[in-house]
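This part of the workshop introduces the protein records we will be handling. A record pairs a protein's sequence with a compact description of its fold. Comparing a sequence with its tokens is the quickest way to learn the format. The record below serves as our worked example for the rest of this section:
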Amino acid sequence: MIKIYISAILIVFGGVAAWADAHKSADDDTETFELSLNAEDVDLEAAEAIFKKSCRACHGNKAQGVASYPKLTDKEPEHIADRLVTYRARERVGPNSALMFQPAKKLSNEDIAGLAVYVTSAFD
């Protein structure tokens, strides 16, 4: 009987360790990189194409926000870039986060920098 209890305890601890490893802090896995968020350093034409294909249906033709989809033009480029990196990592920051996982997962670092600059400057 004691062998069964010991086996059960080992299985539980092993399961907890496996779960903890699978759910470790986002800080452990989050890719860090330096983004240049200057209009001179990004491809605004490519960013415009991505915006028109992937963003404007929900965020509006001029990133003005629609219904529960937030306005983007009043944000700083750093905020937009940070959120896109977060969504690309499939991390939730609000109730609509899951809607952003699919479009963000395809974005490169350069795409993210371009979009961040584009949506915060193209519609002035």
